[in-house]
Predict the 3D structure of the following.
Amino acid sequence: MTASSSVPGSAEEAHGAAIMVSTAAAVGGFLFGYDTAVINGTVDALQETFHLNSVVLGLVVSSALLGCAVGAWFAGPLADRLGRVRVMLIAAALFIVSAIGSAVAFAAWDLTVWRVIGGLGVGAASVIAPAYIAEVSPAHMRGRLGSLQQLAIVSGIFVALLVDYLLASVAGGAMQDVPWGGAAWRWMFASAAIPALIYAVLALQIPESPRYLVRRGRLAEARKVIKRLIGGDVDKRIGDIQRTVSSADEKVQLRDLRGPRLGLLPIVWVGILLSVFQQFVGINVIFYYSSTLWASVGFSESNSLLITVITSVTNIITTLIAIALVDRIGRKPLLLIGAAGMVVTLGTMAWCFSTATQTINAAGESVTTLSPDIGKVALVAANLYVVAFGMSWGPVVWVLLGEMFNNKIRATALAVAAAAQWVANWLISTTFPALASIGLTFAYGLYCLFALLAFIFVYKAVHETRGRELEAM
């Protein structure tokens, strides 16, 4: 072992440093969750303020997701050119601009523009965080550290929903003014600037990815980062990385992902379909529209927001379960267990809403009503659905996307898969109001079908990656 190899006994210190650095990088996931969930508490207020019909409302709510797809698509090539950390800083800047712009929006069209700008940052963060965490993590810890991305996402969702709830409570409703001035829904959007600033500060404190440094020929810096974060035989790791990355002059492009099956490498298709199924099971409907959903079945605005906050806490707890299990039982078993659980719970929700009745309220609007007992069953099923997703498809898909591709194509392939995920997210979020108008039984039945297809796909096409070095992928 050469002088540049790790010092005996330093592995524990290296792993501690890897945890700290991965946690800082995962704050991008926090913004990801915060930005995409903060819209939840504003939906009804936006509809009333800007006089939107259900179709336009769906487009405004989901507009950020189009920016997410574009941001994810370009984040990979940018990360290979500028480095992972610089892209994190760009994402933070986009978050801040979006938060302030959305807070002062004067019409639906300019709110859409600001949300798309924020989406660019969300999309970039969704690519960079899992790629970076995978590249700085020891193999035996990579599943747990990769799951920090999802833990940060669900924590961001929780905090955003909690802020929405508190602001609405203080103002007496999202449409009402808070004591210090301005409608509560505007402050909901503005609040996203605070974690964005924290993300920028943390990004300035973490080292660049050793895989990126090796690719750029900055071997001395790469040795320091590997010694600090991973440990082991540093020179051997450098050599392994050199054999599996492209040089700085060899740009990785989309044509490098071409393969014999429908134009793409099989592994890229696996990543794309994992991403698509993660969204097609309908998870974000729970977080984007749940306040409106529960209000429609008899809960007050305040109680609906509170239920949504409780649901997000459930998501955090189940993500912690995934972190404890992902490096013990593996990625594939967790995905299969989660898909089976979602089939049962989504099927139950579809049945519950098949018993609903339609009534006309004082404003002449059609309102979906569940009986008290069936309403409780639907509420339990919705939270158990979140449990099934949170312990499996939420964190494990991000873990797999960060580690399943080889060093040469990782950032670019992850960008394509993440872009597909955001497009799928947009499709689900945009179509939900229309599907709900047909009937919630139809909507949840469709998501149940996709959960069943996801189970079959994982069983047949996904391979286990637990414990393997990135250079062996």
Observations:
- The radius of gyration is 22 Å.
- The longest helix spans residues 142-171.
- The longest strand covers residues 357-360.
